[in-house]
Specification:
heterodimer, A: about 120 residues, mainly beta, four-stranded antiparallel sheet, 11 strands, B: mainly beta, seven-stranded mixed sheet
Chain lengths: ~120, ~110
Protein backbone atom coordinates (compact mmCIF):
# COMPACT_ATOMS: atom_id res chain seq x y z
CA UNK A 1 0.00 0.00 0.00
CA UNK A 2 1.28 3.43 -0.93
CA UNK A 3 2.40 5.63 1.95
CA UNK A 4 3.58 9.22 1.95
CA UNK A 5 5.41 10.87 4.84
CA UNK A 6 6.35 14.50 5.23
CA UNK A 7 9.50 15.52 7.10
CA UNK A 8 11.23 18.76 7.90
CA UNK A 9 11.46 21.52 10.50
CA UNK A 10 8.31 22.36 12.39
CA UNK A 11 9.45 25.92 13.08
CA UNK A 12 10.78 28.41 10.55
CA UNK A 13 11.73 32.04 11.15
CA UNK A 14 10.08 34.83 9.17
CA UNK A 15 11.84 35.68 5.89
CA UNK A 16 13.58 32.28 5.85
CA UNK A 17 12.92 29.25 3.62
CA UNK A 18 10.52 26.44 4.50
CA UNK A 19 11.87 23.11 3.27
CA UNK A 20 9.97 19.84 3.38
CA UNK A 21 10.53 16.38 1.96
CA UNK A 22 7.92 13.77 1.12
CA UNK A 23 9.10 10.17 1.17
CA UNK A 24 7.01 7.79 -0.90
CA UNK A 25 6.96 4.11 0.01
CA UNK A 26 5.05 1.15 -1.36
CA UNK A 27 5.33 2.26 -4.97
CA UNK A 28 7.69 4.05 -7.35
CA UNK A 29 7.58 7.81 -7.71
CA UNK A 30 8.43 7.20 -11.35
CA UNK A 31 4.90 6.11 -12.13
CA UNK A 32 2.21 7.76 -14.22
CA UNK A 33 1.08 9.97 -11.36
CA UNK A 34 1.61 13.53 -10.31
CA UNK A 35 2.79 14.47 -6.82
CA UNK A 36 1.35 17.51 -5.08
CA UNK A 37 1.73 19.66 -2.00
CA UNK A 38 -1.41 20.97 -0.28
CA UNK A 39 -1.51 23.16 2.80
CA UNK A 40 -4.12 23.95 5.43
CA UNK A 41 -3.84 26.72 8.03
CA UNK A 42 -5.05 25.43 11.41
CA UNK A 43 -8.84 25.45 11.47
CA UNK A 44 -9.13 26.62 7.85
CA UNK A 45 -9.54 25.20 4.36
CA UNK A 46 -7.26 23.57 1.82
CA UNK A 47 -4.92 25.26 -0.65
CA UNK A 48 -3.12 23.53 -3.52
CA UNK A 49 0.51 24.66 -3.70
CA UNK A 50 1.80 22.82 -6.75
CA UNK A 51 2.82 19.50 -8.25
CA UNK A 52 5.64 17.63 -9.92
CA UNK A 53 6.02 14.67 -12.23
CA UNK A 54 8.94 12.24 -12.14
CA UNK A 55 10.30 13.95 -15.27
CA UNK A 56 10.79 17.11 -13.25
CA UNK A 57 7.86 18.93 -14.86
CA UNK A 58 6.04 21.17 -12.42
CA UNK A 59 2.88 23.24 -12.09
CA UNK A 60 2.43 25.88 -9.40
CA UNK A 61 -0.36 27.92 -7.87
CA UNK A 62 0.16 31.43 -9.26
CA UNK A 63 -0.54 32.85 -5.80
CA UNK A 64 2.68 31.22 -4.54
CA UNK A 65 4.64 30.68 -7.75
CA UNK A 66 7.22 33.39 -7.11
CA UNK A 67 8.23 31.74 -3.83
CA UNK A 68 7.81 28.01 -4.49
CA UNK A 69 10.03 25.28 -5.86
CA UNK A 70 8.91 21.64 -6.03
CA UNK A 71 11.40 19.04 -7.15
CA UNK A 72 11.68 15.27 -7.41
CA UNK A 73 14.45 12.90 -6.32
CA UNK A 74 13.83 9.60 -8.08
CA UNK A 75 16.84 7.86 -6.55
CA UNK A 76 15.35 8.28 -3.06
CA UNK A 77 11.67 8.07 -4.09
CA UNK A 78 11.08 11.54 -2.68
CA UNK A 79 9.81 14.92 -3.73
CA UNK A 80 10.34 18.20 -1.96
CA UNK A 81 8.88 21.63 -1.33
CA UNK A 82 10.76 24.86 -0.82
CA UNK A 83 8.87 28.05 0.04
CA UNK A 84 11.01 31.12 0.53
CA UNK A 85 10.47 34.45 2.27
CA UNK A 86 7.92 32.95 4.65
CA UNK A 87 5.64 34.97 6.90
CA UNK A 88 3.16 34.06 9.63
CA UNK A 89 0.56 33.59 6.89
CA UNK A 90 2.48 30.49 5.76
CA UNK A 91 1.84 28.75 9.09
CA UNK A 92 -0.10 25.62 8.15
CA UNK A 93 -0.28 21.88 8.00
CA UNK A 94 1.54 20.80 4.85
CA UNK A 95 0.44 17.60 3.13
CA UNK A 96 2.09 15.68 0.33
CA UNK A 97 -0.38 13.96 -1.94
CA UNK A 98 -0.55 11.65 -4.93
CA UNK A 99 -2.76 12.68 -7.85
CA UNK A 100 -3.40 9.27 -9.37
CA UNK A 101 -3.68 8.89 -13.12
CA UNK A 102 -4.62 6.09 -15.45
CA UNK A 103 -5.40 5.94 -19.12
CA UNK A 104 -8.70 7.76 -18.51
CA UNK A 105 -7.18 10.76 -16.73
CA UNK A 106 -6.93 11.85 -13.11
CA UNK A 107 -8.43 9.56 -10.50
CA UNK A 108 -8.14 12.21 -7.80
CA UNK A 109 -5.93 12.92 -4.83
CA UNK A 110 -6.02 9.37 -3.59
CA UNK A 111 -3.11 9.13 -1.13
CA UNK A 112 -2.24 11.70 1.52
CA UNK A 113 0.57 11.98 4.02
CA UNK A 114 -0.35 12.57 7.65
CA UNK A 115 0.74 16.18 7.33
CA UNK A 116 3.29 18.27 9.14
CA UNK A 117 2.58 21.48 11.01
CA UNK A 118 5.01 24.23 10.11
CA UNK A 119 4.89 27.34 12.26
CA UNK A 120 6.49 30.56 11.10
CA UNK A 121 7.65 32.50 14.12
CA UNK A 122 10.73 34.20 15.46
CA UNK B 1 -9.14 30.69 -10.83
CA UNK B 2 -12.18 28.43 -10.64
CA UNK B 3 -14.12 29.26 -7.49
CA UNK B 4 -15.82 26.35 -5.74
CA UNK B 5 -18.81 27.24 -3.57
CA UNK B 6 -20.30 24.73 -1.15
CA UNK B 7 -23.65 24.81 0.59
CA UNK B 8 -24.44 24.48 3.40
CA UNK B 9 -21.31 25.32 5.37
CA UNK B 10 -22.67 23.43 8.34
CA UNK B 11 -25.05 20.50 8.42
CA UNK B 12 -26.42 18.99 11.63
CA UNK B 13 -27.92 15.61 10.88
CA UNK B 14 -29.54 12.77 12.81
CA UNK B 15 -27.88 9.37 12.76
CA UNK B 16 -29.50 7.15 10.16
CA UNK B 17 -30.90 10.09 8.22
CA UNK B 18 -29.71 11.27 4.79
CA UNK B 19 -27.44 14.24 4.19
CA UNK B 20 -26.68 16.24 1.08
CA UNK B 21 -23.96 18.77 0.22
CA UNK B 22 -23.93 20.94 -2.87
CA UNK B 23 -20.94 22.30 -4.73
CA UNK B 24 -21.04 24.85 -7.54
CA UNK B 25 -18.08 25.82 -9.70
CA UNK B 26 -17.62 29.22 -11.34
CA UNK B 27 -16.80 27.51 -14.66
CA UNK B 28 -17.58 24.19 -16.22
CA UNK B 29 -15.41 21.37 -14.97
CA UNK B 30 -15.67 19.41 -18.21
CA UNK B 31 -12.16 18.95 -19.60
CA UNK B 32 -11.38 18.62 -23.29
CA UNK B 33 -11.00 14.84 -22.86
CA UNK B 34 -14.70 14.68 -21.96
CA UNK B 35 -14.12 13.93 -18.28
CA UNK B 36 -15.39 16.14 -15.47
CA UNK B 37 -12.72 16.57 -12.81
CA UNK B 38 -14.75 17.05 -9.67
CA UNK B 39 -13.81 15.17 -6.51
CA UNK B 40 -15.11 14.95 -2.96
CA UNK B 41 -12.88 14.62 0.09
CA UNK B 42 -13.66 13.94 3.75
CA UNK B 43 -11.55 15.13 6.65
CA UNK B 44 -12.09 13.83 10.16
CA UNK B 45 -10.78 15.94 13.06
CA UNK B 46 -7.04 15.61 13.41
CA UNK B 47 -6.64 13.58 10.22
CA UNK B 48 -5.64 14.34 6.65
CA UNK B 49 -8.36 14.50 4.02
CA UNK B 50 -9.23 11.29 2.24
CA UNK B 51 -10.68 10.78 -1.20
CA UNK B 52 -14.32 9.72 -1.38
CA UNK B 53 -15.45 10.36 -4.93
CA UNK B 54 -13.64 11.24 -8.17
CA UNK B 55 -14.92 12.34 -11.59
CA UNK B 56 -18.32 13.29 -10.13
CA UNK B 57 -19.60 9.86 -9.18
CA UNK B 58 -16.84 7.24 -8.92
CA UNK B 59 -16.40 5.93 -5.40
CA UNK B 60 -12.78 5.47 -4.38
CA UNK B 61 -11.66 2.06 -3.17
CA UNK B 62 -13.14 1.15 0.21
CA UNK B 63 -15.68 3.98 0.32
CA UNK B 64 -19.07 2.71 1.53
CA UNK B 65 -21.89 2.71 -0.98
CA UNK B 66 -23.96 5.01 1.22
CA UNK B 67 -21.86 7.78 -0.37
CA UNK B 68 -22.84 8.88 -3.86
CA UNK B 69 -21.94 11.75 -6.13
CA UNK B 70 -23.89 13.31 -8.95
CA UNK B 71 -24.10 16.38 -11.11
CA UNK B 72 -22.75 17.84 -14.31
CA UNK B 73 -21.09 20.96 -15.70
CA UNK B 74 -21.00 23.35 -12.76
CA UNK B 75 -23.41 21.83 -10.22
CA UNK B 76 -22.60 18.82 -8.12
CA UNK B 77 -23.97 16.99 -5.10
CA UNK B 78 -22.62 14.57 -2.53
CA UNK B 79 -25.23 12.45 -0.79
CA UNK B 80 -24.99 10.20 2.23
CA UNK B 81 -27.97 7.86 2.29
CA UNK B 82 -27.83 7.11 6.02
CA UNK B 83 -25.40 9.05 8.17
CA UNK B 84 -23.23 7.10 10.57
CA UNK B 85 -21.17 8.43 13.48
CA UNK B 86 -17.91 7.99 11.57
CA UNK B 87 -19.15 10.39 8.87
CA UNK B 88 -18.64 13.49 11.02
CA UNK B 89 -16.04 15.96 9.88
CA UNK B 90 -15.57 18.36 7.02
CA UNK B 91 -16.38 17.59 3.40
CA UNK B 92 -14.62 19.38 0.54
CA UNK B 93 -15.30 19.43 -3.16
CA UNK B 94 -12.29 19.95 -5.38
CA UNK B 95 -11.66 20.63 -9.05
CA UNK B 96 -8.67 19.37 -11.01
CA UNK B 97 -9.83 20.57 -14.40
CA UNK B 98 -7.45 23.50 -14.57
CA UNK B 99 -4.63 25.13 -12.66
CA UNK B 100 -4.62 26.19 -9.97
CA UNK B 101 -6.56 23.29 -8.50
CA UNK B 102 -9.09 24.68 -6.04
CA UNK B 103 -11.25 23.48 -3.16
CA UNK B 104 -14.61 24.45 -1.76
CA UNK B 105 -14.70 26.14 1.65
CA UNK B 106 -15.74 22.92 3.34
CA UNK B 107 -19.01 21.71 4.86
CA UNK B 108 -18.97 20.61 8.47
CA UNK B 109 -21.16 17.59 9.13
CA UNK B 110 -22.12 17.09 12.74
CA UNK B 111 -24.54 14.85 14.56
CA UNK B 112 -27.59 16.44 16.18
Amino acid sequence: QLQLQESGPGLVKPSETLSLICTVSGGPISSSNWWSWVRQPPGKGLEWIGETYHSGDTNYNPSLKSRVTISVDKSNNQFSLKLNSVTAADTAFYYCVRDAFDGSGSLGFDSWGLGILVTVSS
Amino acid sequence: DIVMTQTPLSSPVTLGQPASISCRSSQTLVYNDGNTYLSWLHQRPGQPPRLLIYKISNRFSGVPDRFSGSGAGTDFTLKISRVEAEDVGVYYCMQTKQFPYTFGQGTKLEIK
